[in-house]
Amino acid sequence: MVIDLRSDTVTVPDQRMLDVMRSAEVGDDVYGEDPTVNRLQEAAAEISGKAAALFVSSGTMGNLIGILVSAGRGQEVICDSLSHVFSFEAAGAAVVGGIQLRPIDTPRGVMNPAQVLDAVRDRRDPHQPVTAAVSIENTHNQHGGVAWTEAEMAAVAAAAHSAGLRVHLDGARIFNAALAVGCSVADLTRHADTIQFCLSKGLAAPVGSVICGSEEDIAQARRWRKMLGGGMRQAGSLAAAGLLALEELVDRLAEDHANARLLAEGLAAIDGIAIDLSRVQTNIVRFELEGISGAEFRAECRRQGLLGGGAGHRMRFVTHRGIDATDIRRALEIVSGVMRSAARGSTPRSSLATPS
Ligand SMILES: *Cc1c(COP(=O)(O)O)cnc(C)c1O
Prior knowledge:
alpha/beta; 7-stranded mixed β-sheet; 4-stranded antiparallel β-sheet; globular; binds pyridoxal-5'-phosphate
């Protein structure tokens, strides 16, 4: 059995989820006639405290649409320099929207209000792009799953709104954030104008995200989704999995957090691993390696049935519905064996051909 900690996107639907998908009532969603998609959108709007919501194919599409709704050609959107929108979304805002992202460095992925105000351009100066919006990420993936508190969200959003900016929230893992800081999802999302969250990460559905906002924003979002090729027809079979996730799989995120904690504390006790435990608030565990390259580490773990992600000497493990505490203990045994061999200089190099 492989222990796959590369991402929380690797879960596969269980029998119950497949049954719900198979028996979903469907219709043509481009006509707005898929009852299951409509139910999912109503549920998402309610959870996020917004007037409307739209089912989209991925978090990347949800973020792109959120940015397209909030900014136009030649305008700028402030984000942080390790944000997913800046790092991993193929420059969609620039390509599709003619929108420039303005990355700023943040200590833990959490911006402060002064930083946002400092980054706002002078509107009277024709040299400069017009700042239209700020995009924030909660939980913050590349900073190790750090969760913004409601007060942090409120402060940044208030600053942005006072400067006439809109706020988009990349809430790919907003349910993890709410659990970590002990508030409702709506407490966090109410500060943003648009928010996208993923059904296919910790919530364990196979496909999809939802973007939520005002009626006007979502009407515009619907046109962008159509343009991007995201208008799906009998999408209810997919939405059914998302609905089930919202109804039944939110509470179990606590297990993922507990498993991540167990993993992080175990890793912290292993020589050659540097980890900041204060950032392990949700289901993401990031750490750095000393004495072994990331490529070697990943390859040796893979050979022993443990898959992880990351780049260079930085590693990422993510817990999810397919992982239990036994897997975590086994993962720790594997990692500690790999690190011991590396320290003895006895990593079996012949076995390192597998690409990570
Ligand atoms: C995964 C992720 C996305 C994108 O979601 P996809 O469904 O993979 O396109 C956006 N933002 C963050 C923070 C993510 O972790």
